[in-house]
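Hi R.,

Here's the chain you asked about this morning:
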Amino acid sequence: MELKNAQNALASLAGGTFAGMDTCTVPVLKGGKKNPMQGRVTKVMTGANVMCFSNTNGSAYNAMVKRRLAAEGKDPESFQLSPRAWGERVPGTSFVEHKGKHYLEVIFLRAGSVQFFLDGAPIARNEIEGLEDKEEGTQGGLENKVVIRTFALDSVTALRADGTEWR
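And the predicted structure, written out as tokens:
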């Protein structure tokens, strides 16, 4: 997705908005260059439900984790937000810039349907050599974790918000 299309999709973002998202990514597999499937597998996700945040009044992620900790009867102050590991958040937006490339940072609410392809042909997840599950951080002992993901804009194939779809 072009940056301009993504900006248009989220132009009315006032704090946060719910959105639908489709992506096509190339997962990094264990085994490096020795893995015969490295760079040949694509993951296509359609119909994910996400929240996009402008972070104008602080970190929406931080606030959501602390609200969920309090709801679970845990100390919200047990969670300390770490600095970004890479990239720089574009102020007032859901975008991250890193080495001249733009990314969309979202909080995952529900993953969409996921299909994997090897050289364009469908492949079962368990048949992919070196594919690992992502582990979420501890988030102060939170059980109902806030899952944050950052997608390169060129891997976002569609965004849907307020009854409009952008590609």
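Residues 106 and 149 are 5 Å apart (CA to CA).

Let me know if you need anything else.
M.
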